[in-house]
């Protein structure tokens, strides 16, 4: 990797600060920029561990029936924990990864990554703490799908994507269904109920006039 890129890498990943300079001279360590696209699907075997320097990566699962759910997103300074589990367990990748915007990745050969994981405490702590935090968030997601009604999850989603000063959302019903792990028809039905209650206004590919106060009150009564 070019030494000139090292400050950018360490700024995004302070855990690499104690890796000595000569260790970065490996020609198989490099930074690459990718355009938005699906970069890998389930069953992939990794040759490199990827660390996000810029951009956004959506990690998702697709069922046998074709239904899709977003598990989480990885942004600057993050890693995909399912990728790490695949590398450390020498298993096939259990999800799919899609670049939602132009993304720059630091790519470490698996052999180098495992060596650094053993040798450098900061790298080890970063990876394990990231895995624990992400597993907790995925567990919460699964609990929400299993135990919370769709109108509760939909209201939460609308609140999380808007603010008091920006109460509209450019998104399709299909995209919301993917985020929530349900069918488009279910989302459309609940959105129409919200519109009938006067909490939102539906348009083609957009939701406007989102009444955040009413949605928050709705959550309290569910």
Automatic annotation (TrEMBL):
GO molecular-function term, one example from the UniProt record: DNA binding
Q: Which residues form the Cyclic nucleotide-binding domain?
A: 39-134
PROSITE patterns, alphabetically?
Answer: CNMP_BINDING_3, HTH_CRP_2
Secretion signal span: none
Key words, A-Z: Activator, DNA-binding, Transcription, Transcription regulation
- HTH crp-type domain: from which residue to which, for each copy? 148-213
Tell whether Ubl conjugation is among the UniProt keywords.
Answer: no
GO CC, any one term = cytosol
Query: Per its UniProt record, what InterPro entries does this chain match?
Result: cNMP-bd_dom (IPR000595), cNMP-bd_dom_sf (IPR018490), Env_Response_Regulators (IPR050397), HTH_CRP (IPR012318), RmlC-like_jellyroll (IPR014710), WH-like_DNA-bd_sf (IPR036388), WH_DNA-bd_sf (IPR036390)
* Pfam families named among the record's database cross-references: cNMP_binding (PF00027), HTH_Crp_2 (PF13545)
Record protein name field: Cyclic nucleotide-binding protein
């Amino acid at each position: 990797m070019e030494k000139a890129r090292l400050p950018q890498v360490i700024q995004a990943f302070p855990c690499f600060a104690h890796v000595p300079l000569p260790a970065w001279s490996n020609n198989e360590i490099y930074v690459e920029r990718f355009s938005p696209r699906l970069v890998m699907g389930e069953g992939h075997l990794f040759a490199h561990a990827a660390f996000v320097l810029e951009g956004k990566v959506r990690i998702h699962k697709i069922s046998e029936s074709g239904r899709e759910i977003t598990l989480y997103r990885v942004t600057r300074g993050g890693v995909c924990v399912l990728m790490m589990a695949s590398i450390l367990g020498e298993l096939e990748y259990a999800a799919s990864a899609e670049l939602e915007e132009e993304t720059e990745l630091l790519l470490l050969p698996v052999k180098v990554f495992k060596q650094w994981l053993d040798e450098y405490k900061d790298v080890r702590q970063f990876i394990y703490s990231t895995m624990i935090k992400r597993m907790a968030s995925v567990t919460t997601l699964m609990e929400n799908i299993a135990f919370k009604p769709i109108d509760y999850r939909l209201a939460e989603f609308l609140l999380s994507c808007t603010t008091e000063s920006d109460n509209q959302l450019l998104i399709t019903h299909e995209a919301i269904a993917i985020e929530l792990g349900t069918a488009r028809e279910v989302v459309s039905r609940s959105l129409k109920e919200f519109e009938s209650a006067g909490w939102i206004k539906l348009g083609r590919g957009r939701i406007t006039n989102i009444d955040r106060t009413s949605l928050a009150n709705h959550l309290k009564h569910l």
